[in-house]
Specification:
Layout: E1 2-7, H1 11-25, E2 29-33, H2 45-48, E3 53-57, E4 65-69, E5 73-78, E6 99-104, E7 107-113, H3 123-144, E8 149-154, H4 167-170, H5 178-188, E9 192-194, H6 195-199, E10 208-209, E11 221-222, E12 225-230, H7 231-234, E13 237-242, E14 258-262, H8 267-280
Parallel strand pairs: 1-2, 7-8
Antiparallel strand pairs: 1-14, 2-4, 3-4, 5-6, 6-7, 8-12, 9-12, 10-11, 13-14
The protein binds one DNA strand through loops.
DNA sequence: ATGGCAGAAGCATTCTGA
């Protein structure tokens, strides 16, 4: 089962590139961020023609997430709908469409577009940290329900200095601060694993290059797009890779796809047994 | 140290992103 995530920076501008990439890679599930369209304007037909169903949660101009899947999608949820008793007031998160989740093949697929935060002094930074706190509550709930989780998307955080081309220059700044890394680790709590780091321990692997200053030509990138999986899934993981090739396209997104290949042959049975246990509680 | 590039809205220029 191939599961991918890609911040496409406008679904309408990037549509043909996304279709080309799907035809090359043939993912089972593709999670998109920064679609930048209201749901009625999302171009669903090109995906449906290729045998995919499309679930969208978007808004005008900014943000917007979508799940595109060849496998049956169930129990679609939009936003932090399961966080009512957390210590966060989720009302402030309702107008920014940044999270969509669903069950696919017995796995809870959670697609996120984490706020950028602008700078550490900004009000947007506080929003980012609060948003991540709410995400932590959301994940806590899923774990308590016994879900197997695949949490992916644009996190706008480099988890370690290995994930920045020049960690000295950017140390402590936006996307690299201890505050953001702590907030991310509070989401993961050790129970969700960075799939990419299971296979690759070295630096030099980027998922985003700034449009400015010839960042791509100079390979000055960051790894800020991630796929986190439940510990229980890690032994089933066959690969986790970043496909940097679409960054060389004409008019590319500034992000590239990240994907995992996971062997689900013997997972569903275990999962549904666990689910029965859960419902008896 | 600073500015730089891209997309949306909408028609000149501003806002936002990372």
């Amino acid at each position: 089962m191939l599961i991918a995530t890609w911040n496409v920076n406008s679904i309408r501008t990037r549509l043909s590139q996304i279709i080309d990439w799907i035809n090359q890679v043939n993912p089972d599930v593709l999670c998109l961020q920064e679609t930048k369209v209201i749901d009625d304007s999302f171009p669903v037909e090109p995906f449906e023609k290729l045998g995919y169903s499309v679930e969208v949660y978007g808004q005008k101009s900014y943000n917007g997430v979508a799940i595109i899947s060849k496998i049956k999608v169930e129990n679609v949820k939009k936003g932090f709908c399961d966080c009512k008793d957390s210590d966060q007031n989720i009302e402030i998160f309702l107008d920014q469409k940044r999270l969509i989740s669903a069950h696919i093949n017995g796995i809870k697929i959670i697609n996120v577009y984490v706020p950028n935060g602008s700078s550490l002094e900004s009000e947007k930074f506080e929003y980012k940290i609060n948003w991540l706190s709410c995400l932590a509550s959301f994940i806590d709930k899923q774990v308590k329900k016994g879900e197997l989780i695949c949490l992916m998307g644009d996190f706008n955080i480099a988890p370690s200095n290995l994930d920045i081309h020049d960690p000295i220059k950017y140390e402590g700044g936006i996307m690299a601060s201890l505050c953001e890394r702590n907030a991310l680790n509070n989401v993961l709590k050790g129970r969700l694993i960075d799939s990419f780091r299971i296979f690759e321990k070295n630096n030099g692997h980027w998922s985003w290059w700034d449009y400015r200053n010839k960042a791509y030509e100079l390979n000055k990138g960051w790894r800020i797009d991630h796929i986190y999986i439940s510990k229980e899934l890690s032994s089933k993981l066959k690969s986790s890779v970043i496909d940097s090739s679409p960054r060389a396209n004409i008019r590319p997104s500034d992000h590239v796809p990240v994907m995992i290949d996971i062997n689900l042959n013997d997972i569903n049975v275990d999962f549904f047994e666990d689910e029965d246990d859960f419902f008896e509680i």
